[in-house]
């Protein structure tokens, strides 16, 4: 009787392993196919950035066996992409800094304090997410004109900070609610005031949420062509996404130059993502669980 039971358990394990193997294989095939839809376009752009314009048109899918670097030298010398780089990093970096500061403080208040207006504030924050950004362009532009902030760094930093503040507050507040109250009580016993508690306790513990918010805010700010064309269309403060839009009109037939400019545009995003990618999944998932 015992050998029959063992054989039955063995058969079940084999069937389970077979199902797991087939399921895992299918999952990896789907994920690989999906990743190729993202990786291959990036490879295609970088590869064509090392070709002259005629080769991009005639041999766009062939490997650049004899790469040329004239597109990159032209990008820095003729269209001054370096200045646009600096402008984008200043504006996007400033936006991230202010969003994390004000959003983090607002999230700390909403997650750790109890007051009558708390639920209405949450309702108001969720309601603002339903307002399209295009609906606020005219009043924001009028405010910037009256304050003489059009075509300045602040002319893009302030609107983008306001636009991303709701998202940052809700994500960080959701994460901070999971922090144990015992940690807060221990900090009070040690003599921490509210500001010290935020800086020394809640900010370090909530780093995954802050990292998740920072990469999303940086991406949205860095890639915001619509706001850049309206609020900062002057060449001295023009971000890199607005420069890409002008390359197509000034050098419309130079596809190699356009590919090089796009490749240079993607580099900062990839570098920043590589440094903080380990925090993103943790920040987005743990904030949804209340402990």
Automatic annotation (TrEMBL):
Pfam families: BPD_transp_1 (PF00528). It is a multi-pass membrane protein. This is ABC transporter permease. Belongs to the binding-protein-dependent transport system permease family. One of its GO terms (cellular component) is plasma membrane. Its main location: membrane. The keyword Magnesium does not apply. Gene3D superfamilies: MetI-like (1.10.3720.10). GO terms for biological process: transmembrane transport. It comes from the Bacteria. It is found in: Cell membrane. CDD domains: TM_PBP2. The chain crosses the membrane at residues 20-46, 85-109, 121-141, 153-176, 197-222, 255-276. Keywords: Cell membrane, Membrane, Transmembrane, Transmembrane helix, Transport. Residues 85-276 form the ABC transmembrane type-1 domain.
